[in-house]
Amino acid sequence: MSVDKPPQVVAIVVTWNSADVIAECLNSVRRLQFDGEVRTIVVDNDSSDRTTSIVAATDSAAQIVQTGRNAGYAAAINAGIRASPGADAYFLLNPDSRVDHRSLQLLLERLDETGAGIVVPRLVDQYGSLRFSLRREPTARRAWGEAVLGGTRAGLVPSLGEVEMRRNVYQRARRADWSTGAAMLVSRRCADAVGEWDESYFLYSEETDFALRARDAGFALEYVPDAVVVHHEGDSHQSPALFALLEFNRVKFYRSRHSRLATAVFWAGVVAGDLVRFLDPARRAALRPLFGDRRAMAAPGAARSEARDAGETAGQ
After folding, report:
1. Which candidate in 18, 98, 198, 302 could, as Cys together with 230 as Cys, close a disulfide (CB 3.0–4.6 Å)?
2. Residue 294's pLDDT is what?
3. Does residue 316 register a pLDDT over 80?
């Protein structure tokens, strides 16, 4: 960040039929106490409800960028960044999030102190309960650990679970491999070095891909527990089609960074986890695309941007 001028942060909120939640999100952004300039861009994925009119009524200064289609989360983030010349950092938010008034300042301070590329807050639900948002890098061992033990128990052992389930870890600032994408601050230096978000994922695993590509480029992800964002529960475990997409993209992402043999072992672990929990309709739906039938996955028009944190309870 430049020491000659106050930092300029652009809050990028991705919406798709978000009329029920967007006003509260925008109002929380407007209440931020921050030593710099905050500008809001709402990237709308062709909502058919009153989302954009509510945005205009809630924050007349917010810029609305229309993608013209339900382009997915990554494509919307890319559109928001392209519409943000001169920004020092990008504050990426889900529309169903509420930001504590101190959070952006704390995140930016951590960004400057550590030289990280991505900084994330502590996520809680509407009642203040912790959401398990931190993640470890996907490995075949972790896929099998979750298949055998379930996500909750496996997540208590770093080598066996992808989801960080140890509550004490969330009490202190630390580094993580990646985090769910409901709220994150990304430096411009990191965004420029890593490049665009991978739009081929549409929904789920795009934040995994971006965070690990950032790490490859030398930009760490830091977690700040005193920065708090309220985020509602995602839909992945209620919607079989969304969970099928989540599982498919987990394997797709792993394949992008590993050999065919390693991917086969990882895939087998994911399949085993779904087979063991076959009575769950979402698990049954996930097996179809994992065996090549993608019709069970959510179509772009049905996928919800509000489900960005899906997988906070994945593997359980």
Report:
1. 98
2. 78
3. no
The rounded distance, in Å, linking the Cα atoms of 88 and 170 is 27
CA gap 59, 175 in Å, rounded: 34
Whole-Å CA distances, 154 to 1, 247, 258: 39, 17, 22
Element (H, E) at 92: strand 89-93
In DSSP terms, 119 is beta-bridged to 185, 222
Amino acid at 17: N
Amino acid at 228: V
Which of residues 297 and 158 earns the better pLDDT score? 158
**Structural contact between residues 62 and 26, judged by C-beta atoms closer than 8 angstroms:** yes
> Helix and strand tally (H, E) in the chain?
11, 11
Residue 235 identity (one-letter amino acid): D
DSSP state of 147: H
Q: What is residue 296's predicted lDDT score, i.e. its pLDDT? A: 65
The band of 91, judged by pLDDT with boundaries at 50, 70 and 90, is very high
Give the residue carrying structure tokens 């938010």: 93
Of residues 242 and 22, more confidence is placed in 22
Of the chain, the percentage scoring pLDDT greater than 90 comes to 86
Can you tell me the distance from the alpha carbon of 287 to that of 4, in angstroms, rounded to the nearest whole number?
Answer: 55
Sign of the CA dihedral running 144, 311, 129, 133: positive
Indicate if the pLDDT at residue 298 is higher than 90.
Answer: no
**CA Rg, the chain, in Å?**
19
Distance between CA 140 and CA 265 in Å, rounded?
6
Please give the structure tokens belonging to residue 31: 């209440």
Q: Which amino acid is located at 44 in the chain? A: D
Taking alpha carbons only, the member of 188, 226, 196 closest to residue 213 is: 196
